[in-house]
């Protein structure tokens, strides 16, 4: 992990030599009430990207799973991997929080690596990047037994790749907070979905903690915005009284 992180940081410095990494990390640190206007906007953009992007990606992935289930000759069994991992943990809530922190750290690193590879082999061309992903995906799923499964895997990966490319290049761009929150929310939501689907009756208290953690970014966003609006309204009321 240290070697991958160092490589990702080196790629970042090569692509953006005039941009300091600290300037991207600084908005992640807790601010006083209200914060600055740029910090509030960055948090708002990041939260919208994280929640909306996660929901869209999960919906698209579910639609492809349904299509594969309806057309594939293979017998699809319900995976117990997620709930088995939860059952082996001392505290599923703490495990989910640890997964969220890991996702928040690893996703920005993965994005840096991905962007550096695309920049090296595909340049700025979307179609070259998509062709590169097609070659990688076609080889990666070549061991599929049935051609239906192979086609669904390849098509779903191509669609996801196009969505990720658009999100990174056109939407999130250098808002590293968007990648941090996306990794955090995606990891927590994955654990929560596995518990809800498999055994929420046994882990309801832990599930409640996970949902609170999922909503924590929204609470912090309100903390940034509400005091600001109150401060703006006080001078106006004072002026009205004094007038």
Account of the protein in words:
- With 243 residues, the protein is mostly helical.
- It is built from 9 helices and no strands.
- It has helices spanning 2-15, 21-25, 37-71, 81-87, 92-121, 126-140, 147-172, 176-198, 204-242.
- α6 runs antiparallel to α7.
- The radius of gyration is 22 Å and the shape is flat.
- The termini are far apart.
Low-confidence parts:
231-243
Over the alpha carbons, how many angstroms does the gyration radius reach? 22 Å
Largest sheet: none
> In total, how many beta strands?
0
Strand content: under 5%
The shape, in one word, is flat
Summarize the structure.
With about 240 residues, the protein is mostly helical.
Question: Keyphrases for this structure?
Answer:
243 residues; mainly alpha; 80% helix; 0% strand; disordered C terminus
